[in-house]
Every structure is written in C-alpha cells, then in structure tokens.
Design brief:
Blueprint (H helix, E strand, L loop, with lengths): L2 H18 L2 H9 L2 E13 L14 E13 L2 E10 L12 E13 L2 E8 L13 E2 L4 E2 L2 E11 L2 E12 L2 E2 L3 E10 H5 L8 E13 L12 E13 L2 E10 L14 E12 L2 E11 L29 H5 L9 E13 L11 E17 L10 E24 L4 E12 L1 H4 L10 E13 L4 E12 L6 E10 L3 E9 L11 E11 L2 E10 L2 E5 L2 E5 L2 E11 L1
C-alpha cells in the first residue's frame, strides 16, 4: 500500500466514523481512554559561507517536523506519526521530502495474546539478527509494516512472531521478512524451589528470513536468506552474564561484493554491581553480517539487524563528532571494559560531597582472515576465524571521567581520552592521504550555582593530534535561569590546522525557553562538516551557516 492510498483510506475511515457517531458519543468514547503525544520541529535558515564550505540552499529555509498521537484504552492502543519534510534539513536523506504518515498502528491484548497490526518496532535478543528502530538524528527508520503476535504459552515461556516489510522513507522495501523468537525463563517455567532461587536463568532463540526475488543476470542469488541465533542470560545477586551467537546463511549483496560466504556474530557481556561500584566487560565478533531486506540498498537503508559499537558513546562536542566509531559489519572483533567507582562523602577521595570516577577502555580490530585466490570457484571470498583477532587496529580509546562536587555551588566533570582512529577503514578514506589518527582529548565541565535558580556552566575542550586536521579547541558558556530560560554561546576553533585558511572559528549562540511540556530554542552560527553517529551508525553532516529554530512539545 503506497502513501497516497493510505492517506485516502485513513481520511475515508475518519469520515465514516464521524458520520455514524454524534459528537457527544465520540467524546464519550474518547473520554474512556487517554490520548498522549509529542511534537517536534527543526527548521534552519541557510546562508552561503565559502569559508567553511557551506553552499547555497535554493529554498533558503529547510524543515523537519513530526507529531506522534497515541490513544490508549485498557488493553487497546492505536496511533500514528505525521511527518513533514519541506524540504529535509541538510545531511538528511533527500528521499525524505513532502508530508505523510510515516507510522501507524493498532494493538490489543486478549488474555495471553497481544496482536499488533500496521507499524511496529521489534528486537530479537541483542539484535544480532533482527532489530527495527528509529534514529531520528540520523534520519533512519526501518520500522516494520505488517503483523506481530506475542503469546505467553505458559508461565515462563513466551513466543513472538513477525511478518512484514521495512520502511524505506515514505515507501516500503522490496523484501519480505518472517521471523519467530522464543524466550524461556527457566525458574518460572519449572517452578517449585527454582522459582525462589537466587540464580535466574533465561534462554532464548530466534529465526528470521527474508525473501527477495532474484532479478540478476550475473549471479545466481538465493531468494530466501535465513539467520538464526541462540542466547542466554544468567543472574545471581550482584553478578550477571549474558551472551548470544548468531549465524546467517550465504547472502551475496552489494555490501560484501556478492560473495557466498556465511556470516556469523557473537556478543558477550558480564556485569558486577554493588553500592558505589560497577564493572562491565563486553566482547563482540562480527564476520560478514551485513543483513538487509534489499541486497542492493544503500549503506544506511533497510538494515535487518543491529550490530552495536562496543565503544563509549560521548556527549561532548570534540569527543562525539570528530572521530566517532562506526561498526564494520563485514568484519571486526571488539572489546570494552567500564568501571564506575563512587567514593563516599567524608572519605579521603570523596571529600565533603563525594567523588565518582568512570574508567572506560575499548578496542576494535579486524578479524583474522585470508583472501581466497581470484580464480577460486567457491565464490566465498575469504576464510576467517571469528574468534581470532587480526593485526590491524581499527579503534582504541582509554577514557577517564571524574565527577566531583566541590561545594554546594560548584560541581565539575574532568574527562581525558586517548584515542586511536583508523580513518581509512572507519570512514572509507584513502590511507595514503588519511593516516591513522592518534589523539589526546581533554574536557573540563564546571557548573556554578550562584543563586537558587541561576547557574552558569562552562566547557573547555581540547583535542591534540598531529594527523588529519590537527588541534582543535572548543569553549562553551551556558547560563540557566530555571525553570524557563537558558542562553549559550560556543566557539569551536581549528587553531592547529597547518593550512592558515582552515584555521576557522565556528561560532554558535542559542537561547531557549521551557515551560511545562513545551521547549523553544533559537540559534545562530556556523556548523562544522563532519560525521554524526548514534550507536555505531553514522551519517555525514555538511557544513552549514545560518539561523536554527527548534520546537518540542508533549502532552
């Protein structure tokens, strides 16, 4: 069903419903349930700025907006999201253009069964073989359109099944997905003494397949491609351990140069948590696990699975936007460890108000693989060992963050990061011109509350490297008059660039007003070209200059 047909049918249904019910009766029905929603608008007026490479925008003004409306009445819920791109902001996929209903659903629960028709987001296990989600900051949405059924077979045993197609902007992709996932909570299922055991064990398994017709004259492509996974989760007191292994049958596509090698992946994580202390250790391996419902889709479209980046997700400007890591679905082995320690108030390190320290280490390498000869008739491309680390480093970071309150008025966060970033692999740039970056980044974030409702926050950031664009500095000052107003100014300066004409100040100023569920922010300045990432999925953001307006509201 295309968008025009959907809009027409929706309009007809609304008219029919309204004609058969008086306004009074309609109010009575709606009064039995609850209506909730939210609205967001991002608009920018663009100015040409040759100094930073910001090109002219013919429309002058571009805008993204959406509104979610949800109705809930007992075991029934329904809703839709109306979206508007007139035209999409720079950096967003240009196929988002115009207005339409990008999401609509109806769902009900009857006894042990829950049924959803229309659009839905879903995930099996850790997402290694199936996850649909929305990352609005990236302009990414692979929501399903079809049917989902959840059924509680018995205590401790749940099964869900899905069928449908994935969203592709205002249309739907060519491939059809079918899948089933089961989860067995051993303690609840077996009951008795195990139900009260301190050790909780959960097992799960998933299978999903895609269908896409073979229309290639060059390859003999499989039309049905399946993937399966098994997982476990064990918890006892302060300790938990979970893992998942996934396998995908041969899936030649544009991503892997149409080889017929099977794909596989694993994810494992253990945590220990007690008062004032937490430790997390994670490992992940990925080999030929790009999985799309259309084998010819572009890099960020119609992804069936989700391969999380085992790197720390940063919020500070220089850490988050200059060298963010993007997962390499064709092959990587990654490890991450994170420790959080809170020192008590009154202790030597805690001081009068307490201190917390976060230490994070992450590293990513290629998998150990051997390319097959060019004349090999198996068309497997290469041989590999998923659990063996290769000799090429993709990424490494040592990050430490100290949070300390010095008085009732002053609080500070100190962050240091030592980073290794392989531009050639992560960003697909030629290694001759873009060598691996070795960077040191420091951040000081200080908040001073000088009155009950008044606070000023300052950020001082520095990135130091001899590679790429060399040294950067960022300074941000933010004044908050709670609960309604804030004002901020920022300058990001590439002061260490070896080319004088590229030593540019990226100034930006903003002001905002917040009241209840409404927030309005207005900004003006320059935006640096770069890469924006969420959860290991990235998109390029072009340079821009001009006025920005952001409005959000919820009810």
């Amino acid at each position: 069903m295309n968008l025009t047909t959907l809009k027409t049918l929706s309009f007809i249904l609304v008219l029919a419903f309204s004609n058969n019910l008086s306004a009074q009766k309609l109010d009575q029905i709606l009064s039995r349930g609850e209506v909730h929603g939210n609205f967001q608008l991002d608009m920018q007026y663009y100015q040409e700025d040759s100094l930073i490479g910001a090109s002219e925008v013919p429309e002058d003004v571009l805008m993204n907006a959406f509104a979610n409306i949800n109705y809930i009445n007992g075991n029934f819920s329904a809703g839709f999201r109306y979206e508007s791109y007139l035209n999409p902001l720079l950096g967003y996929p240009t196929k988002y253009k115009g207005n339409g209903i990008g999401y609509r659903y109806a769902s009900f629960t009857k006894e042990k069964m829950s049924v959803t028709v229309g659009n839905y987001y879903e995930q099996f296990g850790n997402g290694l073989i199936f996850r649909t989600y929305e990352a609005r900051g990236l302009g990414y949405d692979n929501v399903m359109d079809g049917i989902r059924i959840n059924y509680k077979i018995t205590e401790g045993l749940n099964v869900k099944g899905i069928i449908g197609k994935q969203r592709l902007y205002f249309e739907y992709g060519e491939g059809i997905l079918r899948g089933i996932d089961g989860e067995l909570m051993i303690n609840d299922f077996l009951g008795g003494a195990l139900k009260d055991s301190k050790t909780k064990v959960t097992l799960g398994g998933s299978f999903i397949s895609k269908f896409q017709a073979d229309q290639s004259s060059q390859y003999n492509l499989p039309e049905n491609v399946g993937a399966y996974s098994g997982r476990f989760d064990i918890r006892r007191g302060k300790v938990s351990f979970n893992g998942e292994y996934a396998k995908k049958i041969n899936d030649p596509s544009a991503d892997n140069n149409f080889i017929y090698k099977e794909g596989e992946a694993f994810f494992a994580q253990t945590t220990y948590s007690t008062k004032g202390f937490g430790l997390t250790l994670s490992a992940k391996g990925v080999d030929n696990m790009s999985f799309r419902s259309d084998r010819n889709a572009s890099l960020i479209d119609l992804q069936i699975n989700y391969l999380p980046a085992l790197t720390r997700q940063h919020a500070y400007n220089l850490l988050a936007t200059l060298y963010p890591y993007a997962t390499q679905p064709n092959g990587e082995v990654a490890f991450q460890g994170e420790m959080v320690k809170k020192f008590k108030k009154g202790s030597f390190l805690g001081g009068k108000y307490g201190t917390s320290i976060l230490l994070n280490y992450s590293t990513v390498y290629n998998i150990d693989s051997t390319a097959l000869p060019a004349g090999d008739t198996t068309q497997m491309g290469y041989t590999s060992n998923l659990f063996a680390v290769g000799d090429e480093k993709y990424y490494e970071e040592i990050n430490i963050e100290i949070t300390k309150k010095f008085s009732k008025k002053v609080k500070a966060i100190f962050t240091y990061s030592n980073m290794v970033f392989n531009q050639a692999v992560i960003q697909g740039k030629p290694a001759v011109d873009y060598p691996t970056v070795y960077a040191n980044i420091g951040v000081i974030d200080v908040t001073y509350k000088f009155k009950k409702k008044h606070a000023i926050r300052a950020e001082f950031q520095g990135l130091f490297t001899k590679q790429d664009q060399q040294d950067w500095a960022t300074v941000l000052l933010e004044y908050t008059f709670s609960p309604h107003w804030f004002v901020a100014v920022m300058d990001q300066y590439n002061y260490g660039n070896k080319y004088k004409e590229k030593k540019i100040h990226y100034y930006f100023a903003s002001v905002g007003y917040v009241k209840g569920g409404n927030r309005i922010a207005l900004g003006y300045g320059k935006q640096r070209a770069g890469i924006f990432c969420i959860g290991g999925v990235c998109r390029n953001v072009p340079a821009a200059s001009g006025l920005t307006l952001s409005i959000t509201s919820s009810f």
